[in-house]
Design goal:
Layout (H helix, E strand, L loop, with lengths): L2 H12 L3 H19 L4 H7 L5 H12 L3 H8 L7
Helix pairs in contact: 2-5
Length: about 80
């Protein structure tokens, strides 16, 4: 299998490029972690493969139309302490 064939077949089957698909997965996981954990945004960025938290912030804002901090403030599930 060559890279060009794989990329073309993936795009036809899934409807987006491999890069866009991976980006969607990362953003989805970031949103989940922001809603359900108290992890620092820098930690979330690193867990998702972003070495530069500023770049993660830019990508998140571009695709979600808000910053990670604002997203968390508006969507976080209140975590109970036992």
């Amino acid at each position: 299998l060559n890279a060009s064939y794989l990329s073309s077949t993936f795009s036809k089957e899934v409807g987006v490029t491999i890069s866009d698909y991976l980006l969607q997965l990362r953003i989805s996981k970031a949103k989940e972690l922001l809603r359900t954990t108290n992890l620092k945004i820098e930690t979330i960025a690193k867990q998702l493969g972003y070495e530069n938290p500023r770049y993660f912030h830019q990508v998140f804002k571009k695709h979600v139309s808000t910053t990670p901090n604002k997203y968390r403030a508006e969507h976080a599930i209140k975590l109970e302490h036992f």
